[in-house]
């Protein structure tokens, strides 16, 4: 039931090396899903608009530099979500382009798209149309609000969904403190998590197909994902009826579980139990803060946080960041620095895990990326192919999968179909 194996020359066999994906998505949520599938070995065919391609190709600066340090046309944003794929340019608005994509879909296991609700039906590229020609297709749609409901036809963007889905109501400093108010998360977390949930759903649907022969439709919504991501915060509200507040870098249910300013920077202290709290204050030379009946247990510390936290803050200010980290690590108190990105990529653990990679690239010489975090012993995830140039694999894919001759491909180019 899976498509013919399509392992590219030199590639290591991944868990999904027998899977081919027709990726009609762009920007972040959909490409994040298809990049995961590519890392796991799938042959991902990224369909892009001729001339312009994925929107994120123009989302710069920064752009990847070439060997002389000059900016190329490869936006770092695009590079972050498109490694391991093959780029094919097709004019989806033309009847010939639509026919070409339907022909490709016959040879694919998965179709991934993030167009507005109903838009692909006009092109004969919706699930029902493709199911007619590939009955076991797994078809995943990603939209802002899902395929039904009063908001279904609205455009959805990560920033909007972070606000509408409640994340910004619990992110940011407390309203009664300087700088208080709602904040978005610093990365497009809702897009990324929707891409991750979509990956899980696609893998589950493929497993079902391989057992039953039945394909299916997957309806992924950014808003659904954001509400699900509220996790314990959402559960706290549903089970208490109390609207949660913003706590900044503190925790609603645990004290101390927050940032503190040191003599020369900041640290995070995450004292998850009473024993760790006691070790923390003993390390700071304030053992009486563990004996005080107001602070003896976590529920009491939560109740009296406005009294306790200033005392802890005064204690922490007396030593440097590195001194505190060394001291608390020795005593088994969870702690860590707040690193900027140069410190992140210079970190010895990050380096030991090989998270930063450099891949050969046609115009930049090489591009620096972050490898897949999935570590698998038998079918390792690979991150060995740089994000493709626009249309880099058009001829290759049309010849290899559809058997198009050089003359047929030239005719398609002349008609501006590809």
Automatic annotation (TrEMBL):
The keyword Transferase applies. InterPro entries: CoA-transferase_III_domain, CoA-Trfase_fam_III, CoA-Trfase_III_dom3_sf, CoA-Trfase_III_dom_1_sf. Transmembrane segments: none annotated. Pfam families: CoA_transf_3. One of its GO terms (molecular function) is transferase activity. Gene3D superfamilies: Crotonobetainyl-coa:carnitine coa-transferase, domain 1, formyl-coa transferase, domain 3. Keywords: Transferase. This is CoA transferase. It comes from Massilia norwichensis.
């Amino acid at each position: 039931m899976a498509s013919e194996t399509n392992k590219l020359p030199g590639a290591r066999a991944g868990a999904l090396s027998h899977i081919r994906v027709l990726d009609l998505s762009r920007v972040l949520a959909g490409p994040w899903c298809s990049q995961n599938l590519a890392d796991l070995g799938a042959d991902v065919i990224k369909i892009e608009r001729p001339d312009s391609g994925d929107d994120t190709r123009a989302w710069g600066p920064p752009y990847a530099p070439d060997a002389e340090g000059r900016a190329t046309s490869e936006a770092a944003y695009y590079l972050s979500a498109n490694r391991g794929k093959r780029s094919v340019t097709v004019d989806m608005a033309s009847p010939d382009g639509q026919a070409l994509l339907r022909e490709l879909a016959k040879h694919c296991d998965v179709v991934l798209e993030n167009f507005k609700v109903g838009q692909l039906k006009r092109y004969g590229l919706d699930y029902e149309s493709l199911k007619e020609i590939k009955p076991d297709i797994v078809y995943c749609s990603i939209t802002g609000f899902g395929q039904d409901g009063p908001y279904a036809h609205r455009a959805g963007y990560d920033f909007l969904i972070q606000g509408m889905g409640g994340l910004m109501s619990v992110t940011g400093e407390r309203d009664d403190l300087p700088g208080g108010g709602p904040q978005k998360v610093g990365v497009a977390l809702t897009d990324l998590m929707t891409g991750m949930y979509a990956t899980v759903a696609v893998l589950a649907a493929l497993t079902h197909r391989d057992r039953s022969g039945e394909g299916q439709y997957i309806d992924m919504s950014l808003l659904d994902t954001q509400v699900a991501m509220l996790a314990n915060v959402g559960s706290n509200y549903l089970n208490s009826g109390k609207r949660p507040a913003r706590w900044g870098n503190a925790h609603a249910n645990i004290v101390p579980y927050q940032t503190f300013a040191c003599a020369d920077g900041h640290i995070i202290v995450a004292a998850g139990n009473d024993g760790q709290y006691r070790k923390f204050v003993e390390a700071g030379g304030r053992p009486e803060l563990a004996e005080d009946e107001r602070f003896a247990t976590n529920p009491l510390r939560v109740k009296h946080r406005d009294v306790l936290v200033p005392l802890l803050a005064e204690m922490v200010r007396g030593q440097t960041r590195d001194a505190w980290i060394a001291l608390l690590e020795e005593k088994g108190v969870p702690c860590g620095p707040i690193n900027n990105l140069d410190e992140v990529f210079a970190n010895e653990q990050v380096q030991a895990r090989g998270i930063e990679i450099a891949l050969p690239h046609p115009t930049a010489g090489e591009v620096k990326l972050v490898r897949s975090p999935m570590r698998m012993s038998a079918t390792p995830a690979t991150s060995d192919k740089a994000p493709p140039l626009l249309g880099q694999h058009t001829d290759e894919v049309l010849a290899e999968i559809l058997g198009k001759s050089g003359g047929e491909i030239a005719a398609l180019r002349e008609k501006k179909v590809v």
